[in-house]
Each structure stands twice: as C-alpha cells, then as structure tokens.
Amino acid sequence: MKIARLLILLGCMSLHAQDNYNLIVGTYTNACPSKGIYVYDFNAATGETKLKNSTEDVINPSYVTVSGDNKFLYSVNENGEESTVSAFKYNAATGKIELINKKDSKGADPCYIINDDKHVIVANYSGGTIAVFGKDKHGGITKAKQVIKHNGSSLNKQRQESAHVHMVYFSPDKKYVFANDLGTDKIYVYKYDKDTDDEDSILVLANTIDVKGGSGPRHLAFSPNGVFFYVLQELDGTLTSYSYVKGKVEKVQETTIVAAGFTGQTGAADIHISHDGKYLYATNRGDANTITVFKVHANGRINQVQQITTEGQGPRNFAFGPKENYLLVANQISNDIILFKRDKTTGLLTDTGKCIELCSPVCLVFTPAK
Fold first, then answer.
1. Which of 2.40.400.10, 2.130.10.10, 3.30.460.80, 2.60.120.10 is the CATH number of 59-210?
2. pLDDT by residue (tens digit) across 251-281?
C-alpha cells in the first residue's frame, strides 16, 4: 500500500513538473529600474508565475533569442551608437544567465535577433543594417561576418527618412531570411547559406516586396504550414496576407487592426499565429492599446473575431503559453505583463486578472525549464 501511494505521489509530481516552463523577459533599462533580463517559473496549467532569476546591469536587452539546445541566450543591447549584441550561458534549471561576451552590433539600435546553430542575425533599426555574427565553440559571438546596409526612404518624413530594419525572420524551411524595413516600405528576402565559406554570400538578396506606401512593415508571421505569411505595418495598422509557394510571393488580402472610427494614434507592434494555424493575433499601441484576434481560413484570408484592451499601455511583444491556453502581453509603458486565458476552440481571449509587474517589458520567450 505504501509503495502504491509513493508511486501515485511521484506520478503527480512528474505531471506537475511537466507543466513548468521558463518565461524569459527582455526589458528596457533606461526608463525605470530594471536589471535587464528576467526569468520566471511559469505553470502552463494554472498560469501562476514566480521570479526565478535575473541578470545584473545588462543595458536594454529589448529582444532575446535562445539557442536550439537551450544552453545559450543572445540579446540585443539597444543603446544608440553604443549598441551591442551579447551572448550568455543559460542554465534553464536555475534560470541563471551569465555573460560570455558581447560585440558591436554594427548599426545603431538593434531591435530584433534570431539564431541557429551557426549564426546570430540582428536587425539594427536606426542603423538600417543587418549584421550576421558567427558562433564560437563556447556559445559566444564571433566578429561580424557580414553587414548589409539598406538605403532609401518613404512617404512618412518623420519615421521613414531613412532605412529602418525592424525584423529579421527565418523562412519555415530556413533557406531564406526575411527582413522588414519600416523606413523603405519594403520586405527584403535574402537567400541564406549558413555553410558557405564566403562571408559575403551568407545572405544574398533574392527578392524585395513593396508594401503600401507610408505603412511601415514591422513584424511578420508565417502560417504553420509555411504556405502563407502575414505582415503587420506599424504606422497605419495595415495587416497584409501573402501566399508563399516555392519562394514565389503573391498578395492575398489587405485589412487592418484599427477599429472603425478610431482617430487616435496607431502603433501596430506584434503578430503571431496559433500553432494549429486557426487564429492570428496582433497588438496595437499608440492610443489604442488593443489586441485583435482573427480567424484564419484555408485560403489564407482572415476575418476579425475579437478586439479587446490589453489592460495596459504600450503592448509590445506577446507570446502564447507553452500549451497555448494562455496568452501573455508585455505592456511596455504601463510596466506590466498581462495574462489572458485563451479558448483554443474559438480563439477568444479573457483577462484572468493575473499580472506580472515589471519595468518596461518588451520581449517574451518561453523555454523548457531544464
């Protein structure tokens, strides 16, 4: 009898452990007291969170990315002309993050970062550049292998006076890197050869996609089947759907996340699609402070099913919980992360009343806790 009870207890403990993940949060450190990068224990079943660890004195790690083996973390350090890119050891079990090294970002104000087994790739917003860094055997960053400079401008003279690369993103097959340039109203599609010895040929321009003038492409998301992608434009809230078949891109639909009759300032921010491909979500900052839910159809078209407040100001990045029954929104200006319950069947969101209070949260990334 005692053995049976022990087995039941161990089984319950195992199930509980499977519900626990790490939530990594990148922040701005110049607006309010912040240590940089925070790691929380997150229970995917209950939505409960608890601070696990944090860095010390890391400057503006506004976006982060974790290596495929869950052992290293890379962040931008968005700091004008003194901007850098940092590599850290990451202990998922304890949440401890230790600096390995950092390098000049090769462009002012890096705002997005991705990585694979060979490279760390950064979008430098103010510098208008893409920088490709290698990785050494210890997980650190090598010198920049390739730096690509964008040129041009567009209709909005205050925001589009020059190139502003806002995102770099791997295509589903990892053969291309997409780069959204808010300043030029273009999406640049680069052929990606991670194994080449010719550093000038790691990224080679294959195509450019023009978006609506003055709209400012910010973030994009691919459908899980890789057949469609969706581009969110910051300056006017446009949301554009494209088909993507064998590298060929065609526009499918153009809609908006701006509510009818809304006359305030728009600042569209982030976009993600549920893993089942059925629902798309997008945030809007400015005077709106909303998250909008769209139903995704088999032909790539979408229709709005919900728009609600993010219960805070400046909704920047957001992320699905590991089981997608929750969705978390980082409200940069109101200094909080709001937890919404997500109905997987309808896609609809409901405020749980749960909140993480944290200085200027920007980027949310979930990882296994071990």
1. 2.130.10.10
2. 999 999 999 999 999 999 999 999 999 999 9
How big is the chain by its Cα radius of gyration, in Å?
Answer: 20
Residue pLDDT, tens place only, 331-357 = 999 999 999 999 999 999 999 999 999
Residue type, 116: D
Chain segment 142-181, per-residue pLDDT in tens? 999 999 999 999 999 999 999 999 999 999 999 999 999 9
Domain ranges of the chain: 19-51+313-368, 59-210, 213-309
- The CA dihedral of 247, 252, 258, 260, to the nearest 10 degrees, is 180
- CA dist 75 and 193 (Å) reads 23
Does this model's pTM top 0.85? My answer is yes
Distance CA 370, CA 65 (A): 17
Q: 176 with 206: CB under 8 angstroms?
A: yes
Partnered with residue 302 across adjacent β-strands are 296
Alpha helix (H) ranges present in the chain? 2-18
- Vertex 113, ends 285 and 211: CA angle to 5°? 55
Residues in the chain, pLDDT under 70 = 1-17
Q: How many residues does the chain have?
A: 370
Tally Cβ neighbours within 10 Å of residue 305.
14
